């Protein structure tokens, strides 16, 4: 599709320039003409723009500021690695407590304690509230696990919600385990059958926000009976099936080890940070494992710690971020974010 009538500006050169513009500038240029609007809305352009945008990722930090008088969660997007300037994002969601946040392809997934789920694109300011899946899941008797990601083949964005009856002995008539997948294109939920859930039965899954890589979402899980036995549970966003991945082999001297899943930027691989104890990270050592591309084997890359500051994998230096998190506040989380043209508008 031609984007310029000037013979001195070939289409491929004009496209190359436009792909490197900010989302804010592209939204303004959509007003130039219907042709330009259609060009910018083309899925191919959106995909290429996202690919380039991922080379300039920014840091988003979620924490509870120790200088604040309440326990409201702070969600800030820092403009660069100096952490000198930032945008405060949570005013967009008013006051939300005890929320889960996922960031994928420039889209934010936010779920509060009442299972009100919202998608938001900070760059385009588009927002979408998801239809309710299971009304009883809002009750405290349930343990809710969530995930948000996409199928890279179809470019379909999906939410997975796992609802588990945490106290079946008190409410034996309620379902013990339910799971559903939301598709953004149809704006609807599909409930998985019981036989599709056998790999996650008898296991506690822990929300691992921002853990979708190449169309697969990952969680850390533990066995309900052998509680010290850990796994990694994976969910294929395209096939909509679960997979159970064995925990890396660690010495018997680390029986209380815990793990956090982290995406390795630009490599598009999932990694597992295993702490040697439940103790404070200031006194713990951390093993850094990487999962192979087939999702079967772990490779140990390095051991670091104790960590008093943020560790830069490229420079191998520790950085004091200046952020001070309340010890009794919500979990401290760090995400990567890139601007995106991906639309979450409902099609009429």
Blueprint of the fold:
Blueprint: H1 11-18, H2 23-29, H3 34-41, H4 43-53, E1 58-63, E2 74-78, E3 86-88, E4 100-104, E5 107-111, E6 117-121, E7 126-129, E8 142-151, E9 156-165, E10 177-183, E11 188-191, E12 203-206, E13 212-213, E14 216-223, E15 230-236, E16 241-246, E17 258-264, E18 269-275, E19 286-291, E20 298-304, E21 310-312, E22 317-319, E23 333-337
Antiparallel strand pairs: 1-2, 1-23, 2-3, 4-5, 5-6, 6-7, 8-9, 9-10, 10-11, 12-14, 13-14, 14-15, 15-16, 17-18, 18-19, 19-20, 21-22
Domain F-box: 9-49
Pfam families: F-box, FBA_1
Organism: Hibiscus sabdariffa (roselle)
Labels describing this entry:
single chain; 348 residues; mainly beta; five-stranded antiparallel sheet; four-stranded antiparallel sheet; globular; F-box_dom; F-box domain-containing protein; F-box-like_dom_sf
Question: What does it look like?
Answer:
The chain has 348 residues and is mainly β. Helix content is 10%, strand content 37%. The protein has four helices and 23 strands. Strands 12, 13, 14, 15 and 16 form a five-stranded antiparallel β-sheet that branches. It has a four-stranded antiparallel β-sheet with strand order 3-2-1-23, with no helix packed on it. The radius of gyration is 21 Å and the shape is globular.
Structure summarized in a few sentences:
The protein has 348 residues and is mainly beta. The chain is built from 4 helices and 23 strands. Residues 9-49 form the F-box domain.
């Amino acid at each position: 599709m031609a984007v310029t009538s000037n013979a001195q500006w070939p289409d491929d050169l004009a496209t190359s320039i436009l792909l490197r513009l900010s989302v804010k500038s592209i939204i303004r240029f959509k007003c130039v003409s219907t042709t330009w609007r259609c060009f910018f809305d083309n899925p191919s352009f959106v995909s290429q723009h996202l690919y380039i945008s991922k080379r300039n990722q920014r840091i988003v930090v979620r924490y509870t500021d120790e200088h604040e008088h309440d326990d409201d969660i702070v969600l800030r997007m820092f403009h660069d690695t100096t952490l000198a300037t930032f945008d405060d994002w949570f005013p967009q969601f008013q006051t939300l407590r005890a929320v889960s946040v996922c960031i994928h392809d420039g889209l934010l997934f936010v779920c509060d304690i009442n299972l009100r789920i919202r998608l938001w694109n900070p760059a385009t300011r588009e927002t979408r509230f998801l239809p309710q899946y299971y009304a009883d899941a809002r009750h405290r008797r349930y343990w809710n696990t969530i995930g948000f990601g996409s199928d890279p083949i179809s470019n379909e964005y999906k939410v997975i919600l796992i609802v588990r009856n945490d106290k079946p002995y008190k409410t034996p008539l309620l379902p013990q385990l339910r799971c559903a997948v939301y598709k953004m294109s149809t704006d609807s939920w599909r409930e998985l059958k019981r036989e599709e859930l056998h790999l996650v039965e008898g296991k506690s899954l822990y929300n691992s926000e921002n853990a979708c890589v190449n169309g697969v979402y990952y969680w850390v899980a533990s066995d309900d009976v052998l509680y010290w036995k850990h796994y990694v549970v994976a969910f294929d966003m395209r096939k909509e099936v679960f997979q159970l991945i064995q925990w890396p082999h660690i010495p018997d001297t680390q029986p209380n080890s815990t793990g956090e899943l982290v995406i390795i930027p630009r490599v598009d691989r999932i990694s597992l940070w295993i702490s040697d104890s439940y103790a404070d990270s200031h006194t713990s050592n951390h093993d850094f494992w990487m999962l192979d591309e087939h999702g079967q084997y772990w490779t140990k890359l390095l051991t670091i710690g104790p960590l008093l500051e943020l560790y830069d994998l490229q420079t191998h230096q520790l950085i004091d971020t200046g952020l001070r998190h309340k010890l009794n506040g919500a979990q401290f989380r760090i995400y990567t974010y890139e601007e995106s043209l991906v639309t979450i508008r409902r099609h009429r």
